[in-house]
Design brief:
Layout: H1 2-11, E1 17-28, E2 33-42, E3 45-51, E4 62-67, E5 72-75, E6 77-82, H2 84-87, H3 91-98, E7 103-108, H4 111-117, H5 119-128, E8 135-140, H6 158-162, E9 170-176, H7 179-183, H8 187-198, E10 202-205, H9 212-220, E11 225-226, H10 232-240, E12 244-248, H11 256-266, E13 271-274, H12 280-285, H13 289-298, H14 303-309, H15 312-317, E14 334-339, E15 344-350, E16 353-357, E17 360-361, E18 397-403, E19 410-416, E20 419-420, E21 423-424, E22 432-438, E23 447-453, E24 461-464, E25 473-477, H16 480-493, E26 496-501, E27 504-510, H17 522-538, H18 546-550, E28 561-564, E29 567-570, E30 575-577
Helix pairs in contact: 4-5, 10-11, 13-14
Length: 581
Amino acid sequence: MDELRRRIRVARGEEPADLLLRNAQLVNVCSGEYYQADVAIVDDIVISVMPHQAGSLPTLTAREVRDLQGRWLAPALIDGHMHIESTMLTLAEFARQVVPRGVTSVMLDPHEFANVLGLDGIRYVLESGRGLPLTSYVMLSSCVPASSFESPYRTLLAEDLLQLLEEEQVLGLAEMMNVPGVLSADPQVLAKIEATRQQRLVVDGHAPGVSGHDLNAYAVAGIQSDHECTMAEEARQRIRLGLWLMIREGSAAQNLDALLPIVQELHPPRVFFVTDDRDPLDIMTRGHIDSMVRRAIELGLEPVEAIRLASYNTAQYFGLQNRGAIAPGYLADLVVLDDLKTFKVAEVYKNGVLVAQDGQLITEIVQDAASIAGVTGTVHIGNVTEADLYMAGKPGLVEVIGIEPGQITTRHLQEEAPLRVGELVADPARDLLKLVVIERHHASGRVGLGLVKGFGLQKGAIASSVAHDAHNIVIAGASDSDILQAAYALEEMGGGFVCVVDGQVRASVPLPIGGLVSPLPAAEVVEQLRALDAVAAELGCSLEHPCMTLSFLSLSVIPSLKLTDQGLIDVETFTRIPLQR
């Protein structure tokens, strides 16, 4: 009561505020206006926003006054859906990179850690987000595994998730990828959705290609959003049905340019920005949610609307009624901009405290090395030999995964079989590589085999323990010996990326935390990634970031053809198929 009484008195000008930001050019995402104003803050809350009027004198006072001298003041940015594992950074290091860019809140789906470590993976993310100048909310991973065709560390059931639904930082159920399970009213799928809705939390969607009756059924099941749209008409369908459209701009899947026209046409209220999957090189060069704001403005969207899509709308979807705007009673997460159109960040305030200035974090983050002790040593492939990589074949067509540059979808191709004495083999001259997925959680020795087209690699092998969503070992290579060597190199370093040529490791990116994340600073991780990309390019690889592409080739819920440790999966029919008919 005393706290509220003081806030009322400050708002009326009867007591001094803690902080007064004077002479701001306010970006008001509630009204869609820009105007000069003074903003008063008490503790971590905006108390008063007073527009300047001709001839009037400032009436608010404060213990500390900062004159913004006409610079822009906007709400800080929120990422509505992302995976910290895709950044390959700890949450502490991620905060060092994105908070100076104006990002102060993120909605994390830790389903990568959940696939590798079960509930302990989700708890690790919850714990590692505490005490940072970045609010890390968690959406509980709905599909571990993503489908029955994938093999995680362990399956998470509805009763497993129930114990975490009441955690303060948990905002709902993460992307419901099991579309067939929803449409067939699978009891486990519906139990997860119902439990979440009973807590008045949100359920995120994931519905690539779903339309018509099935999209209506998906929505009526209680799912409220989708981030898998790649075309404007898909987006229109979802908006018309009341679903929230998450516009995604990741490193591999970039959909902003294609979807922004629907925003410019309809200006719908239920739209916000997400990054989903961004690697550290992308974050350090292009940025994070801030880059989406810049690009939207470049494409002609009014700056205040672009910022609204990255702040207020996101908060509204998640039921965070006092986030994402600069208004009385709202959390004082703010950015000061030198330039509005380029979203050039000068200062960042988190909970009313200045935490970043001129592109640098100015508050200390202490990372406890002991906190990762229980989340390492997760790669165990057992006694896999070259004999396990043998693919018996015959003359004729072979089912081939075709890479779609810039997308996480693939094409379902059929190519003439590359044969050698009754064995299907890689044919680099025709851009056909062997693709191998090895189960890595329980050393079962289970291996999935196939062929992939689109890497351009002429020799050697590229391997990754980042393989959405079960995160088994995935390897593309021109020779069995290099493929096998790459698998054991990953096991030895506890996971990550590796490039092997003629039996020698030419480049590597160790990711020992869950086989997904590095404990190193972002600059060092980026240097390692660049070195690996350079080696891959020398070997003929035509992809800008081959390991990012490789990591999605075993995701069995994204069309069209994928490979898991259980075999080749036709995602269109949701069935396992042979290499040759």
